[in-house]
Amino acid sequence: MGKATKNKVSTKFQTSASNISKHVTSKQPNAEPTNAKERLEQELGLLHVRKQAIHMNHTPGDTMTHKVKKKATMKRSANARQQKKIARALLIADKEETKLEKQNEKAEMKKLRKNIWS
User: What is the value of pTM for the model shown?
Assistant: First the structure.
C-alpha cells in the first residue's frame, strides 16, 4: 500500500510540456552578466529600483537624504522673550533643588532626634 501512494505522488508532480507556462523563458533574470556592458546595465537597473523603493516608502518623519533648509534667525524681541523664559526656568529649577535639599536635611534631623529619644 505504501508503494502505491509513493508512485502516485511521483507521477503527479512530473513535468510535461502541457504543465509549463507559455510565458517561461530560458533566460534567468538573476544570471551573472557576461560582459562589462551587461554588468553596468544590471547595476543601473538595481540603483533605479532602490531609488523607487526609497521614494515609495518615504514618510515625512523619516531620515532621508534631502536638502536641509537653514533656520531663520530670531528677531531681537523673540530672542529676548526666549531668554526670559530660560532664565525663569533656571530660577524655578534652583528653587526646587534648594527645597529638596532642605527636606532631606529635615528628614535626617528627625531620624537623629528619634534615635536619641529611643
Answer: 0.35
